[in-house]
């Protein structure tokens, strides 16, 4: 059985994130008992916020996954500040321009 102590490194990193990067856009931040050494950062206000976080944490742009599913989904995983980090960005799909006939 995992305990809260198993999540300590990720929780400590979350505190460091808040203190060091308080100027970054607000995000959903979670530490799961399934991956206790990982911090999940979710950004729902646009892909610019994703890029701001990715750059601040020094995660390589070449590692970004791009998917569409009725919207746009970006994800990058890496190590930062002593913890595994996964940043996910979401944005609605862009409407295709209407063509006048």
Give the secondary structure arrangement, pairings included.
Elements: H1 8-20, E1 28-31, E2 38-43, H2 47-56, E3 65-68, E4 71-80, E5 83-92
Parallel strand pairs: 2-5
Antiparallel strand pairs: 1-2, 3-4, 4-5
How would you describe what is shown here?
The chain is α+β, with helices and mostly antiparallel strands and 101 residues long. It is 23% helix and 34% strand. It is built from two helices and five strands; from the N terminus they run H-E-E-H-E-E-E. It has helices spanning 8-20, 47-56; strands spanning 28-31, 38-43, 65-68, 71-80, 83-92. Strands 1-2-5-4-3 form a five-stranded mixed β-sheet. The termini are far apart. 19% of the residues are buried. The mean pLDDT is 91.
**Shape type:** elongated
Annotation field: number of helices: 2
Protein structure class? alpha+beta
Q: Indicate the proportion of strand residues.
A: 25-35%
* Distance N to C terminus: 65 Å
Query: What is the mean pLDDT?
Result: 91
- The tally of strands reads 5
Task: Profile the largest sheet.
Answer: 5 strands, mixed
Over all CA atoms, what is the radius of gyration? 16 Å
């Amino acid at each position: 059985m995992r305990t809260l102590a198993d999540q300590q490194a990720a929780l400590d990193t979350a505190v460091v994130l808040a203190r060091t990067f308080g100027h970054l856009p607000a995000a959903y931040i979670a530490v799961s008992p399934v991956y206790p050494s990982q911090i999940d950062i979710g950004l729902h206000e646009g892909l610019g916020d994703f890029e701001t976080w990715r750059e601040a944490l020094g995660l390589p742009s070449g590692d970004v996954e791009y998917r569409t599913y009725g919207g746009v989904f970006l994800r990058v995983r890496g190590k930062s500040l002593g913890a595994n980090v996964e940043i996910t960005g979401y944005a609605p799909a862009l409407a295709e321009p209407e063509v006048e006939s």
